[in-house]
Design goal:
44% helix, single chain, two-stranded antiparallel ribbon, 8 strands, Rossmann fold, disordered N terminus, 2 domains, 6-stranded parallel β-sheet, alpha/beta, 10 helices, 244 residues
Length: 244
């Protein structure tokens, strides 16, 4: 099968590092993202955003960015932006942690990561989750020891999907951009990777998602789309190791 038929193209050898998204890619936490978005919008409107200007159909990152732009451009007191950011962080952190007791590893994750480590890949996590949730989720699912490198939204500086967040993590990992791969299950993972000029592989949701979701990932720059982590292991040539 050639690349146009769905098999992944050869990456620049040697591939040194792989950066994984967390929620939906490595673990399933069933976050209440709808509630998060509604809460962020409610807080934004309290701090100067015109009601109805923000849509709950946007991602949380998009809602926050649009809210900050409107707050800063509205002539509101300078402290409004910082109060908005602080209140938003507190609310999202709390909602995230509510999901922790039901967070589980995605099928195939431990085997895949063990195989990648045995092959000498450097592994990192880039997530919009908080540092606390990320660490506890990895501990709870038995995946923490695979990841010496983590970058969460709690880290100083930009957060995903800003490509600089990925560049900072790769610098910490000691991996060149053209020797790296990003794996994720959401369009912001694709956006972050492609803007940083780093190869991106998509993993479909456990449900499989809508029929057109794979096409949307390819249109967003995915070099390959895996049905699950088992197929991702095949793409990375570690499937046989993962099965042992």
């Amino acid at each position: 099968m050639n690349a146009s038929e769905g098999s992944p193209p050869a990456f620049l050898e040697p591939l040194l590092g792989i950066v994984f998204d967390l929620d939906g890619t490595l673990v399933e936490s069933n976050h209440d993202f709808g509630r998060m978005r509604r809460e962020v919008i409610r807080i934004a409107e309290r701090h100067g955003v015109v009601p109805g200007h923000l849509s709950p159909e946007l991602t949380i990152a998009e809602i926050e960015s649009a809210a900050i732009a409107e707050i800063e451009g509205s002539g509101a007191p300078p402290g409004n932006r910082f109060r908005f950011e602080a209140e938003t962080k507190k609310v999202i952190d709390a909602i995230e942690l509510e999901a922790l007791p039901k967070t589980t590893a995605r099928p195939g994750a431990p085997e895949l990561l063990k195989s990648l480590v045995s092959r000498g890949f450097r592994l990192g996590v880039l997530t919009r989750s908080s540092e606390e949730f990320c660490r506890q989720a990895l501990e709870r699912t038995g995946l923490r020891d695979f990841f010496p490198f983590l970058r969460t939204r709690s880290a100083p500086g930009p957060a995903k999907p800003d490509p600089e967040a990925l560049r900072l993590l790769l610098h910490e990992m000691g991996v060149q951009y053209d020797r790296a791969l990003v794996v994720g299950d959401h369009r912001i993972d694709a956006e972050c990777a492609t803007r940083a000029r780093v190869r991106f592989y998509a993993v479909l949701p456990e449900s499989g998602g809508e029929p057109a979701v794979a096409d949307r990932f390819r249109a967003a720059g995915a070099a390959a789309v895996a049905r699950d982590l088992h197929e991702l292991a095949e793409f990375l040539n570690v499937a046989r190791l993962a099965a042992t």
